[in-house]
Automatic annotation (TrEMBL):
Residues 2-70, 77-145, 148-214 form the BON domain. SMART domains: BON (SM00749). InterPro entries: BON_dom, Lipoprotein_DolP, Transpt-assoc_nodulatn_dom_bac. This is Osmotically-inducible protein OsmY. The lineage of its organism: Bacteria, Pseudomonadati, Pseudomonadota, Alphaproteobacteria, Hyphomicrobiales.
Length: 214
């Protein structure tokens, strides 16, 4: 597919997404590599624009250069924004109390700390991305497993037995905080189930999916 067609499809897909103002997003394409520029109202919209672009056929990579601007809203100072972020994290029951520290500089929120589950690290990002004034999020939170690799593997295997037709065709290997899935599945939906089971295990920071369709 040529770059002109890819650009047109990306623009159409952005315009089709109801969550963002596509009129403020610029798109260029070179050899299938899409560069997004312009501005959006929130950090969440910025992430949506990138995800929408990645799902377009013919897109090989995305360079995201979108700025976050909040027209018509008063500028939020770093100190006030840090206080807002701290309150949001304190109210979120998914996030362990006092597990996260944060720093705000020109609207960019840097997160550090340690949580036992990957979904808790993702929850911090989700909790802050829609806050007015947040221009970027740097998530440096570590995920450290409270259980042994054997227990991680057993938990994933148990989840597969509950959710898949033939769990014995899926082999699970645990290497530190990395899970490797191989073997075969009958339908692609079972591959997604296996990935979700791996990511849900405590302490998992990376999942390599080598599953094939039988």
């Amino acid at each position: 597919m040529d770059d002109i067609t890819v650009r047109r499809h990306v623009l159409d897909e952005l315009d089709y997404a109801p969550m963002i103002d596509a009129a403020q997003v610029g798109v260029t394409v070179e050899n299938g590599i899409v560069t997004l520029c312009g501005h959006v109202r929130t950090y969440a919209e910025r992430g949506i624009a990138e995800r929408v672009t990645r799902r377009v056929r013919g897109v090989r990579a995305v360079i995201e250069q979108i700025e976050v601007r909040a027209p018509g809203e008063p500028l939020v100072g770093d100190e006030a924004l840090a206080e807002r972020c701290a309150q949001v994290l304190a109210w979120d029951t998914r996030i362990p109390e006092r597990a996260i520290t944060l720093k705000v500089e020109k609207g960019c929120v840097t997160l550090e700390g340690c949580v036992p589950h990957y979904h808790q690290k993702a929850a911090v990002d989700q909790a802050l991305r829609r806050l007015a004034g947040v221009t970027d999020i740097v998530n440096l939170i570590a995920v450290k497993p409270p259980v042994s690799p054997t227990e991680v593997r057993n938990r994933i295997a148990a989840a597969l037995r509950r959710s898949t037709k033939d769990p014995d065709t899926i082999r699970v290997h645990v290497d530190g905080d990395r899970v490797i899935l191989d073997g075969c599945v009958d339908v692609w939906s079972e591959r997604e189930i296996a990935e979700r089971a791996a990511w849900s295990a405590p302490g998992v920071r990376a999942v390599e999916d080598h599953l094939t369709l039988a």
